[in-house]
Specification:
118 residues; alpha+beta; Nuclear Transport Factor 2, Chain: A; 4 helices; 6 strands
């Protein structure tokens, strides 16, 4: 039996906040797609791992859950970070793994917040 989308997203956020690229990659199917809409989609589990490893190395990121919604095999995460950035992510699951993720957040606000922090 697989975890619900809500429970999996909670675990995904814990891995994200730990900055653990290997652990977070365990939530994705081999041919998953991660599409942060201001960038080209990242396709494949290993490419997604490489993306997270690069981002965790470059930035201090924290995801605070505001809301999680479920609808069938979809989960939606509304989030914020301590610097004031807000966004949302849509996760589609199959057999308990993420097969598609789409994220919406403001790149300029993220860049400005990261510049201020460093």
């Amino acid at each position: 039996m697989h975890s619900s989308p809500r429970d999996t997203i909670i675990q995904w956020v814990a891995a994200f906040n730990a900055g653990d690229a290997n652990r977070i990659t365990d939530f994705y199917a081999d041919h998953a797609v991660n599409h942060q809409v201001m960038f080209a989609p990242v396709v494949g589990k290993q490419n997604i791992r490489a993306m997270f490893a690069k981002e965790f190395e470059a930035y201090e990121m924290v995801c605070e859950i505001e809301n999680i919604f479920e609808d069938g095999d979809w989960g939606i995460l509304e989030w914020r970070d301590p610097l004031g950035l807000r966004g949302c992510g849509f996760f589609q699951f199959k057999d308990g793994l993420i097969i598609h993720q789409r994220g919406y957040w403001d790149r300029q606000s993220f860049s400005e917040a990261q510049t201020i922090q460093h």
